[in-house]
């Protein structure tokens, strides 16, 4: 098949959906790979690296006009007209953006949104949410360490002792677990909160303390079980008790990293304006839910998506695309996720698309086909 790899045009997007490593594999499978000039440059993959493995370098129209287009983000309104009706598109297409999906369907594309893959063992190798959240969790800690004007580890020096940084992690999914592991490697003292009781053991195994908020009613317990491994909105009674416990920790924290999300819903508010006011000057909040909160904030209403702001001496970082700041490795992992997904939808002869409607991963990812949005 003719496989196109366009340069990503979304603001701040530095990743690329195919690296020279995966381009080589696609070539070996019999595909012709056309990469837009400069597509991999920001991810440390220059045009020459693609040419060296047999890919052709082309322009935007050349990459977008292929039978199979591999992207990181959904195509923009300017890109869509360059795509062929009947072409297949694989990327992070934002499965909760109904309007965006309707645009893909109207363009006659067969679209696969990789974020919609189930969180099952078989889907693990193509799980873009995990591969990218892992990077976000790591980068959040590195960024906090950079913004914070003190050490992370406890130090005993001839000039006196420096205390270890206190780090609070809110939301312990893939990003939160990596944030704990990274902060631990830097020597911080860490506490973490999540609605799901199953994460307590994982938090403790990484050497952090779990902020326990016991469930007092059957309704609270049931909500905490979540669905499909994901969190559900918790009853107000539990959230009120969690807020008290979290507020105590946040007031003492040097760094807070919040990652709490509920798929398809606004991110919960976990760090109120009053809590920020009670924090120590010089402390840092990295809000990974930036732009996904109820009013455009994140887990903190004072977060400004895409910006770093200072409030009462507290630095609040609202970076919305942390994986793009680790472009080379984020692309390497994403490109392998894409390659693995393609095994499910490409016929063995490498010339046709095959959409097995009895495959739960394919069905979950399929968002548009034959002019229709296929996701309810
Ligand atoms: P996510 O990004 O959707 O959410 C981040 C975390 O925020 C979650 O742990 C969630 O429970 C938590 N959260 C939501 N509301 C909260 C609140 N009010 N207070 C505190 N925390 C709150 O999570 P994710 O990283 O995408 O992981 C989702 C699930 O998928 C997890 O259960 C994870 O273990 C599972 N998972 C499974 C596989 C697999 O088996 N293949 C792979 C990856 C992830």
From TrEMBL:
SMART domains: AlaDh_PNT_C, AlaDh_PNT_N. The keyword Oxidoreductase applies. Residues 4-136 form the Alanine dehydrogenase/pyridine nucleotide transhydrogenase N-terminal domain. Residues 145-318 form the Alanine dehydrogenase/pyridine nucleotide transhydrogenase NAD(H)-binding domain. The keyword Iron does not apply. One of its GO terms (cellular component) is plasma membrane. Keywords: NAD, NADP, Nucleotide-binding, Oxidoreductase, Translocase. GO terms for molecular function: NADP binding; oxidoreductase activity; proton-translocating NAD(P)+ transhydrogenase activity. Belongs to the AlaDH/PNT family. This is NAD(P) transhydrogenase subunit alpha part 1. It comes from Sphaerotilus sulfidivorans.
């Amino acid at each position: 098949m003719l496989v196109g790899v366009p340069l990503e045009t979304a603001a701040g997007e530095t990743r690329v959906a195919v690296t020279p490593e995966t381009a080589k594999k696609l070539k070996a499978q019999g595909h012709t790979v056309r990469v837009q000039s400069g597509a991999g440059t920001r991810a440390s993959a220059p045009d020459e690296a693609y040419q060296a493995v047999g890919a052709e370098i082309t322009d935007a129209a050349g990459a977008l006009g292929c039978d199979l287009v591999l992207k990181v983000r959904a195509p923009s309104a300017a890109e869509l007209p360059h795509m062929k009706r009947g072409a297949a598109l694989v990327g992070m297409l934002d499965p909760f953006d109904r309007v965006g999906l309707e645009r893909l369907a109207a363009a006659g594309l067969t679209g696969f949104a990789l974020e919609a893959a189930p969180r099952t063992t078989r889907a693990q190798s193509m799980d873009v949410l995990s591969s990218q959240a892992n990077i976000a969790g790591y980068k959040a800690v590195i960024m906090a360490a950079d913004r914070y004007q003190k050490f992370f580890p406890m130090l005993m020096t001839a000039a006196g002792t420096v205390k270890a940084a206190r780090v609070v992690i809110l939301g312990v999914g893939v990003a939160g677990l990596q944030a704990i592991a990274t902060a631990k490697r830097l020597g911080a003292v860490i506490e973490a909160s999540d609605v799901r009781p199953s994460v307590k053991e994982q938090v403790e195994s990484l050497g952090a303390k779990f902020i326990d908020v016991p469930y007092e009613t059957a309704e609270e317990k049931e909500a905490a079980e979540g669905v499909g491994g994901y969190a559900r909105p918790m009853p107000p009674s539990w959230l009120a008790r969690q807020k008290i416990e979290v507020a105590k920790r946040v007031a003492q924290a040097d760094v807070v990293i919040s990652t709490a999300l509920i798929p398809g819903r606004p991110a919960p508010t976990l760090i109120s304006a009053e809590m920020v006011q009670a924090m120590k000057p010089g402390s840092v909040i990295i809000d990974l839910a930036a732009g996904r909160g109820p009013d455009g904030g994140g887990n903190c209403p004072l977060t400004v998506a895409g910006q770093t702001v200072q409030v009462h001496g507290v630095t609040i970082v609202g970076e919305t695309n942390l994986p793009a700041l680790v472009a080379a490795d984020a692309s390497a992992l994403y490109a392998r996720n894409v390659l693995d997904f393609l095994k499910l939808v490409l016929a063995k002869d490498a010339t046709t698309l095959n959409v097995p409607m009895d495959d739960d991963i394919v069905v979950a990812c399929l968002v548009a086909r034959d002019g229709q949005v296929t996701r309810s």
